[in-house]
Design brief:
Largest sheet: 5 strands, mixed
Structural class: mainly beta
Strand content: 35-45%
Number of domains: 3
Number of strands: 23
Helix content: 10-25%
Number of helices: 5
Shape: flat
Order of helices and strands: EEEEEEHEEHHEEEEEHEEEEEHEEEEE
Distance between the termini: 102 Å
Length: 390
Amino acid sequence: MKQALPLLCLHLVFSFPTRAQQPSSVADAKQPDAATESRKDANVSAAKLPIRRVVLYKNGVGYFEHLGHVRGSESVRIDFTSAQLNDVLKSLTVLDLSGGRITGVEYNSEAPLARRLTTLRLSLGERPTIAEFLGSLRGARLEVRSGNGSALTGRLLSVERKTRTGAGPGWTVETDEISLITDSGEVRSVDLNSSTSVKITEKDLQVEVGRYLGLLASSRDQDVRRMEISTTGTGERSLYVSYISEVPIWKTTYRIVLSSKADKKPLLQGWAIVDNTAGEDWDGVELSLVAGAPHSFIQQLSEPFYGRRPVVALPESVQLSPQTHAAMLTGRNGRLSGMVTDAMGGAIPGADVRLMDENNAVIATTNTESDGQFTFSGVPPGTYRVEMES
């Protein structure tokens, strides 16, 4: 008896959810955040590094390989979620295959926005008004233009809320008034309205405002962790990046296709349902689906970790009086020593010993040794009083 085996045909079905780990191109470059602001003046542009190989496992992790080209001191940016970044940090491999050098890998902080704003010189919250924003610039040099075109330049003194009376009885209006101190020392005030423009003339303050706006812009992406890989070299070079990342588990379905002809064998189809979370089409990608489940673990490597250190307080004797060395410069210096014991005659180590003159002024301080002994050297001849405390 012969047994017919149906033909197995494998199909792939892709689903495309929201973007999670999309390499940014030059056209997609946005305002840099606080972690990458220092590279603003380095003329480093973000290049797209396409995915070339993907291996998906049944335990919810995937292996990704990127291969592309960079030129000069070019950088590459890849976006991940927080869960993906933890896996990437423990498995990331970056190689410049053409003799260049990898200069660094950076990623943005996971700290709350309110905490990151405290690193700036501007004392601003997340939703400031115009008056609050200008109030944080007190002392800065500004150029204010009113509606009639006149310009006023000086340092910002204050931004105040003023109440003015109108033409009719009982009619009042509130407006914000900005006050400047000009270079000649004159205090001038201008009403802030829709026709008033304010320009920051200090370059470093403009950069600080740009960093502040960059942090606000980065808060729109609640769970996007941007990794920037910086390279240096000459000419066009090949860059290779590989890592392990958290991915949805790929699923399988099967079906049998029957023919209307009796002599034609049935066809068994197998379908693989794969979720593409890379945020870009997998064009020319070598895809492998593995039914095995290698060992994997989660470690919060992207979160800041601080250790606890003991706090050592200063001795009270150091806080009360500074250590003096003037006695060492005088001639015919003496030496005073003794021993501190308890009522049973046992030595008391670590006791505070103070040497005081006839006016009860502290001349020197020391501590007893492990055997209870203490010594004062370089003491000029005279009458002294010794106080001990433990």
